[in-house]
Amino acid sequence: MKHGRNKAVLVEMENDRKALNREDDDQQEEEKMEKFFALIRSFGEARDRRRRELNEMEMTKSKKTRKLESGQSTWVPSFKWEDFTEDVEFIRRAPLIFPAPCNKKEDKKDEEDNEGDLDLKLTL
Q1: Considering its fold, how many domains does the chain have in total?
Q2: Is residue 50 part of a domain?
Q3: Average pLDDT over every residue of 58-81
Q4: Measured between alpha carbons, how far is 36 from 9 in angstroms, rounded to an integer?
Q5: Phi/psi class of residue 2: alpha, beta or left (left: φ > 0; alpha: ψ in -120 to 50)?
Q6: CA–CA distances in Å: residue 88 to residues 38, 83, 94, 98
Q7: What is the DSSP letter of 116?
Q8: Residue 60 in domain
Q9: CB count, 10 Å around CB of 70?
Q10: Mean per-residue pLDDT for 13-21?
Q11: Is 92 a domain residue?
Q12: Range(s) of the domain holding residue 54
């Protein structure tokens, strides 16, 4: 019987060892899962942080361009009452090009006088 008892104790110890190994395996699996989810969270946090940084950079850039645009003064016309009370005189200048006279009789006389000359008129 003693031998049977030892065998039972050995089997029981073996079962305990397997149970401990299973618990260790389960614990290792849990640790791996925790590390995995911690990595997922840190990637998400890094993504969100980078997105916020880019948004802030875009906002500061747009604020700078608004400041530059608003900093440039543009001329806005303004009128005062004095602008309308003065008399305005328009200066008329004599035309630089005078219209040709419409005397057809004189043109015919000139043509008769120039019959012996070369014809320098360009025609199409």
Answers
A1: 1
A2: yes
A3: 78
A4: 40
A5: alpha
A6: 83, 10, 19, 28
A7: T
A8: yes
A9: 8
A10: 80
A11: no
A12: 1-64
